Structure to design on (241 residues):
């Protein structure tokens, strides 16, 4: 167990974010979990002896207000929160425009706004920013994939900005990860679930803990020479046939 660090995990009340929060707590870190619904984040904070902060990360005013409630010193920031929006069911360009705007709001803004808020408090040197991308941002998947690709490229600029201060910024890119609210519909569809396992090289679906292990490594003090990079956690799905 290393030095106790202060970690902020967005979307820490469920799925991948909850596994990330647990993994940092297991190594002795203090973790603040963020999300919109108070109940899931309160439950995780109680379980891991951390703190919970309820807010909508798409709202710049809410993030501005929350600045005072974030830890005074932040060692690790994990931008995990994101929500996939259903494809438009209404015909017409207005519905398409609305869908694309909402997807950018719910995938890109939570990471961008939350990073700007505590940035001055990030450890210099030694701070770590890890954002969760998606293989959809590499292989394409409608507006969701485009929004995740925006996270991937935004990280280049971020890494260029913070790197000289000894802070690293990286993207961990999951493939299909079951046991999350995000993947609930796909898990219910047994054929789709099996198809997704088959597209990986390791012939299984991913677990939140698979992603958490990569995040903890990229955020570790030992990973200080990894900056502006991508770490795929997809069981080889990107190469899968
Ligand atoms: P979940 O839906 O279980 O987790 C998403 C979490 O983010 C929820 O706890 C949600 O809580 C929170 N959240 C969403 N929007 C906001 C917001 N505007 N403000 C604050 N909190 C928010 O799914 P996953 O664990 O799968 O998703 C985590 C990340 O992983 C997402 O970025 C997703 O795009 C990405 N991902 C997931 C994959 C998968 O197959 N599961 C594959 C690739 C990437 P609440 O609703 O209470 O706000």
């Amino acid at each position: 167990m290393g030095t106790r660090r202060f970690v902020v995990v967005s979307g820490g009340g469920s799925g991948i974010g909850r596994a990330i929060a647990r993994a940092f707590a297991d190594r002795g870190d203090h973790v603040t979990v963020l999300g919109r619904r108070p109940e899931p984040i309160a439950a995780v904070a109680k379980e891991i002896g951390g703190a919970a902060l309820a807010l909508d990360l798409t709202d710049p005013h809410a993030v501005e207000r929350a600045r005072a409630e974030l830890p005074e010193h932040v060692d690790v920031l994990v931008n995990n929160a994101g929500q996939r929006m259903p494809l438009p069911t209404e015909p017409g360009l207005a519905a398409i425009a609305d869908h694309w705007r909402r997807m950018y709001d719910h995938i890109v803004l939570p990471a961008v706004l939350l990073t700007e808020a505590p940035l001055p408090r990030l450890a210099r040197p030694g701070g770590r920013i890890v954002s969760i991308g998606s293989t959809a941002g590499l292989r394409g998947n409608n507006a969701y994939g485009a929004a995740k690709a925006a996270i991937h490229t935004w990280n280049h600029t971020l890494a260029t900005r913070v790197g000289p201060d000894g802070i690293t910024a990286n993207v961990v890119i999951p493939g299909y990860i079951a046991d999350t609210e995000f993947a609930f519909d796909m898990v219910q569809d047994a054929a789709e679930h099996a198809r997704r396992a088959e597209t990986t090289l390791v012939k299984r679906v991913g677990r939140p803990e698979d992603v958490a292990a990569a995040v903890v490594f990229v955020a570790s003090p030992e990973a200080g020479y990894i900056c502006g990079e991508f770490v795929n956690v997809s069981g080889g799905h990107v190469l899968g046939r």
